[in-house]
Design brief:
This protein folds into 2 domains: 9-151, Nucleoside Triphosphate Pyrophosphohydrolase; 155-286, Rossmann fold, CATH 3.40.50. Helix content is 25%, strand content 29%. It has helices at residues 67-79, 139-148, 161-168, 177-194, 242-252, 266-273, 282-286; strands at 9-11, 17-19, 24-33, 36-44, 54-55, 58-60, 86-95, 100-108, 121-128, 155-160, 208-209, 212-217, 233-237, 258-262, 278-280. The strands form 3 sheets. Strands 3, 4, 5, 6, 7, 8, 9 and 11 form an 8-stranded mixed sheet that branches. Its cofactor is Mg(2+).
Length: 289
């Protein structure tokens, strides 16, 4: 597990040669605007593999790295980007058989300054996602971009905690709603750490999803006292009706976000789908805990 032990060539089952003994990963930094998303692109140095083409900051994974840590390291080495300024929202796996490339999609709150930090690139530029095809793209990126492009819009999970707790039917939950809510929040936080893998009808497929999560608690469950949670998970105590609070959360999502409400309540389903949200039942979430 030595540093840079991933450097080297590998051949995939398709018969192609790729850089990265243990596979490779790249960072797709996205900044969303009302006019559409912008992505940070790297122009590769002439001497590198497919030199002169545009692709993602990235490179070979070391044996001890996961895809996210590898992509963030490479982005720091090549573009001086700092991971603290990015929020990872998903990972897309392009598996060639015997070699794979992970595209780590991360949201940037602004058009972060980036410039070549080593000799592997000659330029870095924020480019409109709708105009990427005007560039001479790295062949691997050009092949996967049509599949990755639909996945870059963030998803916001909105949890109807009362409904999910009821569906879970944990023994005695109705006598200690705060305790039941605390236990569920801890498990959801752990899931947020791991990433969600079950696909969602109506959303493009992605290997791991790291959404922003809003857990709405009401009544006695507002007294829940969970330990520190994953930063992507926020708890919203409803001042009155939990359904009304969920509707307001859905109404407040940004134009480029898609709300996914977890509930089996038919009345709430009708209200939020009327606002453009998707809905899945509690079993979708519970099966991943």
């Amino acid at each position: 597990m030595a540093e840079k032990d991933g450097d080297g060539w590998a051949r995939c089952d398709r018969g192609h040669q790729h850089w990265g003994v243990h596979g490779a990963a790249g960072l797709l930094a996205v900044h969303h605007t009302p006019e559409g998303p912008f992505v940070l692109m790297q122009k590769r140095s002439w001497w590198s593999h497919h030199g002169g083409t545009w692709g993602l900051p990235g490179g070979a994974r070391d044996s001890h790295e996961d895809a996210i840590s590898s992509a963030l390291r490479e982005a720091h080495e090549e573009a001086a980007l700092v991971g603290d300024l990015l929020r990872v929202q998903g990972v897309y796996l392009d598996d060639h058989g015997g070699w794979s490339f992970h595209t780590v999609i991360a949201e940037a709150a602004e058009l972060l300054q980036a410039a070549p930090a080593n000799s592997e690139s000659v330029a870095l530029s924020w480019v409109s996602a709708d105009r990427l095809n005007e560039k001479k793209l790295h062949p691997g990126f050009a092949e996967t971009w049509p599949l990755v492009r639909p996945t870059i819009d963030p998803v916001v999970l909105v949890l109807d905690m009362a409904n999910i707790i009821g569906a879970r039917a944990e023994h005695g939950w109705w006598r200690d709603r705060a305790g039941a809510a605390t236990r569920l929040l801890v498990e959801v936080s752990s899931l947020a750490d791991r990433g969600l893998q079950r696909q969602i009808e109506g959303l493009p497929d992605i290997t791991w999803r790291y959404p922003r999560i809003v857990a709405v608690v009401e009544g006695a469950a507002r007294a829940a006292t969970p330990p520190p949670l994953n930063p992507a998970l926020s708890v919203l105590p409803a001042p009155g009706s939990g359904d009304d609070a969920i509707v307001e959360v859905v109404r407040a999502v940004r134009p480029w976000e898609r709300a996914l409400v977890i509930t089996a309540d038919r009345g709430l389903r009708d209200r939020v789908t009327g606002l453009g949200a998707l809905v899945v039942g509690p079993s979708w979430l519970l099966a991943q805990l």
